């Protein structure tokens, strides 16, 4: 799903990079489990960073609505198409429904 955030020409590279971070996270978890022997403390060490980032939702959504509100529908469509296909505006798969073409 995260690869769909990138233009079509960069999706393969994005998929590889995302999986590298995923593998590094599992290796870090193994090191963390070796250092923190008690499973309750390990669970706390794993969960706490995610819980601390939850307030970012309240920060991100108003700014996203403001950004989308500033763009007119034609420029919003062109921005979505640029993100979808890259700067040249070609290629890619039809994965987004943007209304009638």
How much β-strand is present in the residues? under 5%
Task: Report on the biggest sheet.
Answer: none
SS summary, helix count: 4
* Total domain modules: 2
Taking all Cα atoms into account, the compactness measure Rg is: 19 Å
**For the terminal residues, how far apart are their CA atoms?**
24 Å
Poorly predicted runs: 92-101
On the 0 to 100 scale, the average pLDDT is 78
Topology as a string of helices (H) and strands (E): HHHH
Shape: flat
Detailed description of the structure:
The longest helix has 25 residues, at 11-35. The chain is mostly helical and 101 residues long. It has two domains: 1-53; 55-90. It is 67% helix and 0% strand. The two termini are 24 Å apart. The protein is flat, with a radius of gyration of 19 Å. The protein is built from four helices and no strands. Mean pLDDT is 78; it is low at 92-101.
Fill in the keyword field for this structure.
101 residues; mainly alpha; 0% strand; flat
Secondary-structure blueprint:
Blueprint: H1 11-35, H2 39-53, H3 56-70, H4 73-85
In a nutshell, what does this entry contain?
The chain is an all-alpha fold.
